[in-house]
């Protein structure tokens, strides 16, 4: 086997797998963006929702919006190229990996801070407002 056939084989994706991945990721991209925008809109327009815990939820929605608006389209393009053209585009994969690591880390940090906020609210309910103001 020569190097070009090896490279084409590693960059190809079966048609059924590619179409399934494209369909699911396109739905996640559209629905995830819409739902995260709804969270941002709700917190921005309703004054009763403007609390510390909801600001953490807003920042998580913004971090997830980065995933659905930037990372998912990159992934769709990569899967599309591998499925229909059997080619790897290094120019797409490097920025994709960088953005995925950045946005994934941001989402994990936001989830951890939401968990810490909820822990303080449950463990120290009488001191929660004082702690969160500091």
Question: Describe it for me?
Answer:
This is G-protein coupled receptors family 1 profile domain-containing protein. Residues 35-134 form the G-protein coupled receptors family 1 profile domain. Pfam families: 7tm_1 (PF00001). With 134 residues, the chain is mainly alpha-helical. Helices cover 84% and strands 0% of the residues. It is built from five helices and no strands. The mean pLDDT is 88.
Give short descriptive properties of this protein.
134 residues, mainly alpha, 5 helices
Q: What is the helix content?
A: over 70%
Kindly state the mean pLDDT as a whole number? 88
Catalogue the unreliable spans: none
Q: What structural class do the secondary elements suggest?
A: mainly alpha
Largest sheet: none
Query: What's the overall geometry?
Result: elongated
Please give the radius of gyration in angstroms. 20 Å
Strand content: under 5%
Number of alpha- plus pi-helical segments = 5
Report, as a whole number of angstroms, the end-to-end distance.
65 Å
Protein name: G-protein coupled receptors family 1 profile domain-containing protein
Keywords: Cell membrane, G-protein coupled receptor, Glycoprotein, Membrane, Receptor, Transducer, Transmembrane, Transmembrane helix
Membrane topology: Multi-pass membrane protein
Transmembrane segments: 20-43, 55-75, 108-128
């Amino acid at each position: 086997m020569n190097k070009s056939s090896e490279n084409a084989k590693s960059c190809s994706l079966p048609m059924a797998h590619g179409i399934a991945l494209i369909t699911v990721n396109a739905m996640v991209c559209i629905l995830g963006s819409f739902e995260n925008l709804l969270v941002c809109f709700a917190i921005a327009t309703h004054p009763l929702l403007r609390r510390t815990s909801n600001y953490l939820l807003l920042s998580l929605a913004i971090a997830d919006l980065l995933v659905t608006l930037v990372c998912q389209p990159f992934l769709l393009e990569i899967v599309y190229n591998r499925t229909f053209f059997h080619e790897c585009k290094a120019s797409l994969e490097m920025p994709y990996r960088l953005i995925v690591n950045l946005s994934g880390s941001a989402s994990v940090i936001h989830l951890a801070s939401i968990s810490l906020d909820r822990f303080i609210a449950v463990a120290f309910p009488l001191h929660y407002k004082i702690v969160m103001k500091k």
